[in-house]
Specification:
heterodimer, A: eleven-stranded mixed beta sheet, 15 helices, globular, B: mainly alpha, two-stranded antiparallel ribbon, 3 helices, 2 strands
């Protein structure tokens, strides 16, 4: 396997089908790689034995018509997906010891297609964070390093472990979740592809909830094609999730043609914010030129309520989180605080929650409790719901005028050193999400693809936003942009022992 | 707007989170900054805007009817409980 570093799901699928590669050999290679990459802290659980058993089964199945579409493909999933009989704790102390007796719908769909589970991936606690530093396991490390710094870089968040694992080739692809950019921002920071599907495209059943009107699962992969392959498998209505939609799932892989002549690409004026670094502006301009040279029509557009996306998000997401996380009380599962003599149920709840949650989670629960409390509900929560409606309408207006996709940078900066922002104000960390949260508020699909690097050699990503249920089209445009930008850089393997 | 120590303590009580004096000082400062960010929403005229629909995107109209299933899985539910007895979660006595 001389081309192991650049192996993709689609290439491995072909090699496995032809019999040029065995699932066991491939899985062994990945387990070896994961075990020698512990410096990256990308995995919080390695399921080597399960993976090898699945691989042996796949090798037997490979020549049969019974085999699934991902037969023999080694993947890993964020610690937020409940996996039957395997520890799942969303990187939180409060879920210490929790072993779900059930499997999330999206991961069950992967195993049904005979994908192989290598393990669970690190993340920010309850997916609340943009740097991976809120994880109870300690942060995952970005496999990329700047040329001028020895400081480890953040892999982004919250699906930082997923993006770092794919970038470091510790698995062929991964699942993450995206509530305000948690797939796209880490994908951009790690030089990989990540797609957040339309709200309701994939089932949320069995995914530990953060903000239920915003959360969506999606793939993180090395290529657009691989994202198309995984997205098709995890999509579809699920009777166990009433917010999953009855929508036909297109064959996303066959939509990858790359002919974008005549497509209208919107460039939103409001995303040109004052302090965007010149290298991000340059990346964006290069992307615009590449799409134009490929025959697309570039159209200046306006999304006037963009600047209110962050305050809207930071009212609504904490409000939903405070409600969702009320279930962690030390009674039903997970961590339970110790009581002193004479203390009762109220102290049990409070001690459990104060010892079990990290500071960022507590902060968001408290913000959510505040905006939902009597006297503040109308001023904050209800107001934010109305502004969310305006943000959604901005996008609807643009797409109803025939725009096929919107192109923006994914992040306002490249990956930053770990701990460089955590000591500052939480609001400063929230600014990381400025280009990604509007998409979640509007429920739309968006993909981040790596298209260039900074002067110091760190990857940067561009984001394509589509209309609701328009994943096939943004995947196709991203496929073209991937070809034009020809991003081939890989991180140097500094972490291997 | 400033979120003072008393308000932080009250929010902590509502959210069932025990806060030390140090926590109260830290969260008071941080929550004030977050509320300043949220206050930007005051600039938007929403007098004519309805609340958001149940779903953020169209396409959820054909919802199949919910079907009730009998769980019958008490043992599985209790498996993860820190303490349980005779089919129930165990907690400190609530009613005197």
């Amino acid at each position: 396997m001389s081309d192991f570093e650049t192996l993709t799901i689609s290439k491995a699928r072909d090699l496995l089908l032809k019999g040029d590669l065995s699932a066991v050999k491939l899985t062994e290679r990945y387990i070896e790689r994961i075990e020698s990459s512990q410096k990256l802290n990308a995995f919080c659980l390695i399921t080597a034995e399960i993976a090898l058993n699945q691989a042996r089964f796949c090798d037997k199945l490979m020549r049969s018509s019974e085999k699934g579409k991902l037969c023999g493909i080694p993947l890993a999933v964020k610690d937020i997906f409940c996996t039957k009989s395997l520890p799942t704790q969303a990187a939180s102390k409060i879920l210490e010891g929790f072993v779900p007796p059930y499997e999330s719908t999206v991961t069950a769909k992967l195993w049904k297609e005979n994908a192989i589970l290598l393990g669970k991936l690190n993340m920010d606690e309850f997916a609340m964070g943009s740097s991976n530093e809120t994880s109870v396991y300690g942060p995952a490390i970005n496999p990329w390093q700047g040329s001028d710094t020895e400081l480890p870089l953040s892999p982004g968040g919250s699906s930082g472990g997923s993006a770092a694992a794919v970038a470091a080739n510790l698995c062929l692809g991964a699942l993450g979740t995206d509530t305000g950019g948690s797939i796209r921002q880490p994908a951009a920071f790690n030089g990989v592809v990540g797609i957040k599907p339309t709200y309701g495209r994939c089932s949320r059943w069995g995914i530990i909830a953060f903000a239920s009107s915003l959360d969506q699962a999606g793939p993180i992969t090395k290529t657009v094609r691989d994202s198309a392959i995984l997205l098709e498998i995890i999509s579809g209505h699920d009777s166990k999730d009433s917010t999953s939609a009855v929508q036909k799932v297109p064959n996303f892989e066959s939509a990858l043609i790359g002919d974008i002549r005549g497509k209208k690409i919107g460039i939103p004026a409001e995303y040109r914010i004052d302090d965007t670094p010149p290298e991000i502006i340059k990346l964006w301009e290069t992307g615009i030129r590449q799409l134009k040279d490929s025959g697309a029509k570039i159209v200046e557009i306006s999304l006037p309520h963009t600047k209110y996306s962050l305050p809207t998000y930071y009212v609504l997401a904490p409000a939903e989180a405070s409600s969702n996380l009320a279930r962690y009380d030390g009674v039903k599962y997970g961590y339970r605080g110790k009581l002193r003599a004479g203390e009762g149920i109220n102290e049990l709840y409070k001690r459990t929650r104060s010892e079990g949650f990290g500071d960022e989670v507590k902060r968001r629960i408290m913000v959510g409790t505040y905006v939902l409390s009597a006297g503040f509900y109308e001023a904050y929560y209800q107001k934010a719901l109305k502004v969310r409606n305006l943000i959604r309408k901005d996008f609807e207006n643009v797409f109803s005028q025939g725009i096929n996709a919107i192109l923006t940078p994914t992040t306002p900066s490249p990956a930053f050193p770990l701990s460089s922002k955590s000591n500052k104000s939480p609001v400063e960390m929230y600014l990381n999400d400025i280009f990604t949260v509007p998409v979640n508020l509007a429920g739309l699909p968006a993909i981040s693809i790596p298209t260039g690097t900074t002067d110091k050699g760190l990857p940067l990503g561009l984001q394509l936003i589509g209309p609701a249920w328009g994943e096939a089209e943004i995947l196709d445009i991203a496929f073209r942009l991937e070809k034009e930008s020809n991003f081939k850089e890989l991180p140097t393997n500094w972490w291997a022992i | 707007m400033s979120i003072d120590s008393d308000l932080v303590s009250r929010i902590g009580d509502l959210a069932k989170i025990e806060l030390s004096k140090k926590d109260v000082t830290m969260f008071s400062k941080q929550l004030s900054e977050i509320v300043d960010l949220m206050n930007q929403l005051e600039e938007v005229d929403t007098s004519e805007v309805p609340d958001l629909d149940t779903y953020p995107v169209m396409g959820h109209e054909n919802r199949p009817e919910d079907i009730a299933r009998d769980g019958d899985c008490i043992d599985l539910i209790l498996k993860n409980a820190p303490e349980h007895k005779e089919g129930f979660f165990t907690v400190k006595k609530v009613i005197e």
